[in-house]
């Protein structure tokens, strides 16, 4: 949540929902990791939900202007097997169904993932790939897919 949430609270969003599966991660960001999110959890627009993200999405009919997926290390290098499901066609299609017309799905990755932008383009819409320089190693990558039109039928 750290850097991503710190960026989200800099926007004019009226509500920011953070879904985090691990309660300890939330506690760390309220404590020792607070500087990395610049205290963003204290912003009144932020609501934290402790849940599995895929399960949470299946339990809501809400639609969003933006969904920012900052999960594990990205689509090509997951530590936990259950995290891969949101990067598969079915998971990405589920996320797309929760976007409002004109919404965007942003997917953070610790490294470029060959073919992922093409998959997002097919399932969501045109993709802009943004490389983010990091202190060491290759740049992080954020894939931003724009969803034009109504997504309510698939």
Automatic annotation (TrEMBL):
Molecular-function annotations in GO: transferase activity
Example GO BP: polyamine biosynthetic process
Annotated keywords: Polyamine biosynthesis, Transferase
Pfam families in alphabetical order: Spermine_synth
PROSITE patterns cross-referenced by the UniProt entry: PABS_2
Active site: 70 (proton acceptor)
PABS domain span: 1-154
Protein family (similarity comment): Belongs to the spermidine/spermine synthase family.
Protein name: Spermine/spermidine synthase
